[in-house]
Write a structure and sequence with these properties.
heterodimer; A: about 110 residues; mainly beta; seven-stranded mixed sheet; B: about 110 residues; five-stranded antiparallel sheet; about 0% helix; about 60% strand
């Protein structure tokens, strides 16, 4: 997963707290995205960006904010954490359109108590 | 009904066996991806294909666009192949992707 760096790897939050998951890439990819992975379910898209200054909602955006001020960084903000947001979060990048190889970060394990 | 369905959900094989994992999808796609997720969570891309067949070492991926079906084959399976294999589709004409729930493969020595 060289090239896509996610931090932190593990985090425990209390209900109502806010936090930011960081994602940075050094491959100059236009497309960056955040997914959550829950047991028994496929990865689900939270938000994505096709370039600096451009973001859009995915399948499950509620409770999350994103911004893309640079090509390299795409932070995911939890505004007021809820137990339902306990999940594993993956950042991913690729060049251009949906037909290109996708690269994932190593994941961030988030527990909300 | 999920837009991407994988089968089987779980698969146990003996070392050396030929493995097939299937993926069916119900939406228009620009490409189909096969991903591998090892214990510990990291996800790597194995194949991205939009038609025909691709081979990489002992892994072969095929896609039939008309039937909206793809298969991932592993020849001469090995315990190090034990992982979750995920099928994903790039949605046609946008940047969205949809993922199957994954197939957990265990290869016993």
């Amino acid at each position: 997963n060289a090239g896509v760096t996610q931090t932190p790897k593990f985090q425990v939050l209390k209900t109502g707290q806010s936090m930011t998951l960081q994602c940075a890439q050094d491959m100059n990819h236009e497309y960056m995205s955040w997914y959550r992975q829950d047991p028994g379910m496929g990865l689900r898209l939270i938000h994505y960006s096709v370039g600096a200054g451009i973001t859009d909602q995915g399948e499950v955006p509620n409770g999350y904010n994103v911004s893309r001020s640079t090509t390299e960084d795409f932070p995911l903000r939890l505004l007021s954490a809820a137990p339902s947001q306990t999940s594993v979060y993956f950042c991913a990048t690729k060049t251009g359109y949906s037909g290109n190889t996708i690269y994932f970060g190593e994941g961030s394990w988030l527990t909300v108590v | 009904k999920n837009e991407v369905e994988q089968s089987p959900q779980n698969l146990t094989a003996q070392e050396g066996e030929f493995i097939t994992i299937n993926c069916s999808y119900s939406v228009g796609i620009s490409a189909l991806h096969w991903l591998q997720q090892h214990p510990g969570g990291g996800i790597v891309s194995l194949f991205m294909l939009s038609s025909g067949k691709k081979k990489h070492g002992r892994l072969i991926a095929t896609i039939n666009i008309q039937e909206k079906h793809s298969s991932l084959h592993i020849t001469a399976s090995h315990p190090r192949d034990s992982a979750v294999y995920i099928c994903a589709v790039g949605m046609y004409n946008n940047n969205d992707m949809r993922f199957g729930a994954g197939t957990r493969l265990t290869v016993k020595p």
